[in-house]
Write the structure tokens for this entry.
Amino acid sequence: MEPRDERIYEALRRWWGFTSFRPVQEEIIRAAMAGRDTLALMPTGGGKSLTYQVPTMAREGLCIVITPLIALMKDQVDRLRARGISAVAIHSGLSPRQIDIALDNCVYGDVKFLYVAPERLATEAFRLRVVRMNVSLLAVDEAHCISQWGYDFRPSYLRIAELRERLPGVPVLALTASATELVAEDIMHHLKFAEPHILRSSFARPNLSYSVRHTDDKNGQLLRIARNVPGSGIVYMRTREGTEQIADMLRQEGIPATAYHGGLGYAERSLRQEEWLQGKVRVMVATNAFGMGIDKPDVRFVVHYAMCDSLESYYQEAGRAGRDGKRAYALLLVAADDRDRIVRRLEKEFPPLEQIKEIYERVCSYLNIGIGDGGGASFLFNIHEFCAREHLYSGTVAGALKLLQQNGYLTLTDAQDNPARILFCVSRDELYRLRVKRDDLDPLIRTILRLYNGVFTEFRAIDEGELAAWSGYTPERVRELLKLLWQLRVIRYIPSNRSPILFMNEERLPRKDLYIAPETYLHRQQLMRERFDHMIAYAMNEERCRSEVLETYFGGGETTPCGVCDICLARKKAARLAVRSDEAKPRRSPDATPHRVGNAPVDLESRILECLERGITDPRQIAAEMACPPERYAEAIRRLLDSGTVRTTSGGRLERTAEGPAAAPAK
Ligand code: ADP
Ligand code: MG
């Protein structure tokens, strides 16, 4: 190892207060400092952000970070600012003026981090400014989005190659938590790596015990873990209604629980999240809308009430347990008909081509975009409201929009919290007359004018809480009065909401010009099936250590059994049982016990005997060979011991007895 680079340790201490790096972080940072293009593969929560943040703080210059999720972008910017680091973000949720200001600060100011949503790269405002910035590093988060081979392909990521041409000599650091070999190659190719260079950290989580329960009594299993494992937990559900039902059920059973999903208002969601974060409520029952950017180290269990669409999602959600390194549990519940139900639902996300076009038209009409209009504009788009009004299934609409996105027509961002906005639609004079006439409205209007500039010319973000504090009204009263002003046509008012933004990459096309490439459609569908197949295989697996299955899926090289998942534990137990039953029970005569008990297949026992013949005598090793549910293995061993066919040696190994019964395998 080269001598340690004090600059990066100094930055780590000074800005983050940490003293050491996690495995591979330092290597990635050194590569970035040395100007080497690097692809870093690290699990979610592994600490990817520091790998571009530390080198940037250790020297001059600005880091451009490309990332598709607005919520995470905002989160990162907030965290950096909280540490006194200057950071800005540009995304489709901002007005052109806000974007101009942010970009100017990157050219003239002392901004260290510029977060950019990929669809903004092509805009004039960005392209003209970026060449004048003093860029030291280009970080590409969620880098797998650049690959057509990946499920999350985003055409706007391909623009990064052009950006690199504008920034000669600036190294790229690509980051992702999921990339097959093919995707990794593709990332390096499309990002124009000078030479291939991959650094990977392990996906193993040694303190996390994975398990799967096949059951028709999911509630019973859920209660069991919630009662047996103290501390905070998360239960992931597939539907919004499900979260409320299960939270109710848990509360009725005396377990403090709350529900969380995207359909709740902003205030309600923050409140529930806060209660859970502070440990006032033990269990959070949520849809997958919950958890991003949440950093609670002492989550003791994550239960999945049903399978995810992919192992990527499963690993990420389950991985929210045990961040503090202490023992934690990740339990997946599976019922017999889950698989078919989920497959049917997933198939619905691939509407026929004609229906995709139909949805495109209806979305455009819903947003009042005429043919030939809308290019480069962004719109608040609440998919659930749209679906309710148009009587469409949200999965189908989401699927159609994804396909339209992959064909370059639009970009749908993640849901994000949007503050309330207002715009005065009367002149100052008219407003003055109103204030005189309605003295109940006067304090509020005065406060608005004092706190927010520019409300006469454009929609301004306001904070209802802040208005309440300054005007002396309660927040509820503020909202009522704002609604009243809106009804009086004094202001236009958009209450705070949580909504994704739909960005039109191109103007609205007439239906006949809309082209959805069949390859993208079929390819995406195939990828969806393959991803779900891996999820099923994980759930159905009864042989292999669960942690190893996940590590292998994420491209890990050599793996070793974790020793703490249900499969490893059952294996250990079976081995112990095998040893103990021999010590405890008097040996019966071979013919006293029938060799075949119940309806257990006889060939398992034969196969165990075969192992012994091959010299495999360690019960754990035999268990690994058997590839069967651990309970069945334990039973088979017990029968062999009971019948006197085998015995255990003092070293804990198994051996054939000399007078083994006639049922020995035919050779
Ligand atoms: P990722 O982007 O890989 O999902 P993040 O960059 O968000 O992960 O980091 C996850 C958490 O790990 C953050 O809270 C971060 O502060 C913490 N972290 C990262 N590196 C270190 C380190 N070297 N020492 C202590 N904490 C770290
Ligand atoms: Mg990250």
Q: What stands out?
A: The pocket of adenosine-5'-diphosphate (ligand 1) is lined by residues 18, 21-22, 25, 42, 44-50, 295 (CB under 6 Å). Residues 588-602, 660-667 have pLDDT under 50 and may be disordered. Residues 208-336 form a domain with the Rossmann fold fold (CATH 3.40.50.300). The chain has five domains: 3-200, 208-336, 343-417+501-516, 420-495, 566-656.
